[in-house]
Amino acid sequence: MTKLAQTKESTYLLGTPARSDHNFKYGEALMHLVKGYVGTGIFSMGDAMKNGGLIFGPITTFLIGMICLHCCHLLVNSAHMLHKHYKLDRVPDYADTAKLSFKLAAPEFPAWAFVAKLTLLIAYKVPLDIHSIIALVVIPIWITCLIRTLKCLAYLSIIANCTLLTSIAIVLYFAFTIPTSECPAGLLVPGISEYAIFFGQSIFAFEGIGLVKYKVLILYNEMSEPEEFYETYGVLNIGLHMVTVTYIFFGAVTYLQFGNDIKETVTLNLNTSE
User: Fold this and answer.
1) Please, which of 116, 124, 244, 255 could form a disulfide with 65 given CB 3.0 to 4.6 Å?
2) 118 three-class SS
3) Which residues contact 251 (CB under 8 A, 6 or more apart)?
């Protein structure tokens, strides 16, 4: 078999075995995938629905989720094709998949790769010195870097998912117990400019788009039953549908509750005295 160890720029396939000793199962992989896609961006989905409306908002959110799912399947399939084409020891990771794909691409295509940089989103400007931010995150990052296997990280993903689920449950509790605000005008169909804002908010809310692309192939390679990752009822399909439905439901419920008074993050609408 051809090994990428023959090239100096190889990053991953240096004759490593096809499977590690720390393979994990369906549920553990699902926890990693859900944690990668669901973050604090979900709390801005109510404001996103205000701009997108309750007709086009859920439809567009569902389409974004399905596009993410399709791209993940394309990534896995591309890695498989490159694995067979180059006769590698194992399925390549994201970095090697990208590198080998560009080797097979037309010469003109890589020249336009800089365009991808223009699509990066700038989120919120935090009025905090960069050194303070580094001091706050360096110890947690250092501790998590000591964990060398995804199987061990699966337990942290479970804890993180439970914490996030608790936060969502608290918000929904207030949404269902506080008297509903007056039905806002333009509830169903937004204007063009508002819809453009909604689209940007939805992409930002799916914050795993930039993260999970690196994790997909790692999850696949580390599973004890790799076919469970991409099959019909596999980790990818079930996980992405769960995430998409959660985003749509949470955004619609919080917008219906708080109407046009909803804040950029719905937690600002909660009664802090309770």
Assistant:
1) 244
2) helix
3) 42, 45, 46, 48, 49, 57, 58, 61
- pTM of the full structure: 0.74
**At residue 261, what is the residue type?**
D
SS (H, E, C) 22-83: CCECHHHHHHHHHHHHCCHHHHHHHHHHHHHCCCHHHHHHHHHHHHHHHHHHHHHHHHHHHH
Among candidate residues 196, 157, 194, 171, the one with its CA nearest the CA of residue 246:
171
Would you list the DSSP string of 210-268? HHHHHHHHHHHHHBSSTHHHHSTTSHHHHHHHHHHHHHHHHHHHHHHHHGGG--SSGGG
Residue-wise pLDDT for 19-47, tens only, equals 455 577 888 888 888 888 888 889 999 99
Residues 88-108 pLDDT 10s: 888 888 888 888 888 887 777
How many Å apart are CA 237 and CA 240, to the nearest integer? 6
- Which amino acid is it at 175? A
Q: Which residues of 115-143 are buried (b: 16+ CB within 10 A; e: fewer)?
A: eeeeeeeeeeeeeeeeeeeeeeeeeeeee
Token reading at 103: 């080797």
d(Cα 205, Cα 186) in Å, to the nearest integer?
A: 23
Q: Which amino acid, residue 273?
A: S
Torsion of CA 153, 122, 63, 47, to 10 degrees: 100
- Cα separations in angstroms, 43 against 60, 170, 267: 17, 12, 7
